[in-house]
Amino acid sequence: SDSQTIYPAEVIPFPADTEIKTVAVDGYCNSTSASTISVDLYMAQTDDCGFSTDEPEPYPTDEMEPAASASVTVNTAGSADMPEELFAIACDGNGYTYTGGNLLVAFKARSKSYTDVYMAVDASRPGTSIHRYWTSRETDRWRINPAGMPVIRVTYRTPSGIGESAITPILSVTGGNGTIEIRSTQTRTITVYRADGTAAAHTAVTAGHPATAGPLAPGIYIVEGIKVCVR
Q1: Average pLDDT, stretch 170-179?
Q2: CA dist 21 to 129, 149, 164, Å?
Q3: In this structure, are residues 205 and 181 in contact, taking their beta carbons and an 8 Å threshold?
Q4: CA-to-CA distance for 93 and 115, rounded, in angstroms?
Q5: pTM for the predicted model, two decimal places
Q6: 59 and 44 in contact (C-beta within 8 Å)?
Q7: Is residue 225 predicted with pLDDT exceeding 70?
Q8: Which of 13, 121, 128, 200 lies at a 20 to 30 A Cα distance from 168?
């Protein structure tokens, strides 16, 4: 299958003139056995902020030089509740130089066998990603990804050093009796807000592990744009 995503500048955690070294995709695979797929990775700066929802027009990757091409084995250990790294791909040479602005990331993946893969997404950013299914017999039309913006993680070298970070780290929140359970693919501190905009709690979350915010009074709370009900 093919996918193209535009990551707005405000979600990219590194400055201009950064060399992107590797790109990893988070999600889960419903296939029972690991599959090897051939992946071409393309990246480019763009002034576009998203794709048309009616007839999305893909970028012409056939006219672009891939930033990386490799055969990778898809990890089958993740789940819908807790995605894991599906695969990682290293950029060719010294890496791809990000010069600032919005970043197009496109994948072209091919496999000899059917591989049922789902990418983790940031549901708060619709219209930023398109995809199409591909088989050896037919090519499907491009469609908007209705789930949102796929989560990727990158290792990179800035002018001041080396780092690793998620772009749009996936976040899930579940309301309970006086508490909110929070999960994220990135270690960070999450602020829980009341409906009136005041902070109700600050919770430290470790990547891949649930954290609990509370005790909280019954009501509606907002966690990074997601509304959640506490009983």
Answers
A1: 83
A2: 22, 21, 10
A3: no
A4: 29
A5: 0.73
A6: yes
A7: no
A8: 200
Q: Which amino acid is at 7?
A: Y
96 vs 42: CA distance, rounded Å: 9
DSSP 8-state secondary structure symbol assigned to residue 61: G
The angle at the Cα of 70, spanning 56 to 99, to the nearest 5 degrees, equals 60
Q: DSSP 3-state assignment of 169?
A: coil
- Residue 218 preceded by cis peptide, ω within 30: no
Q: Rounded distance, CA 116 to CA 76, Å?
A: 10
With beta carbons less than 8 A apart as the criterion, state whether 169 and 186 touch. Answer: yes
How confident is the model over 84-142, as pLDDT tens digits?
Answer: 889 999 999 889 999 999 999 999 999 888 788 888 888 778 899 999 987 666 667 89
The answer to whether the beta carbons of residues 166 and 151 sit under 8 Å apart is yes
Q: How far apart are CA 61 and CA 83, in angstroms?
A: 28
Which structure tokens are listed for 140?
């499907």
- Which residues are registered as beta bridge partners of 111? none
pLDDT tens readout for residues 47-71: 999 998 888 999 999 889 999 999 9
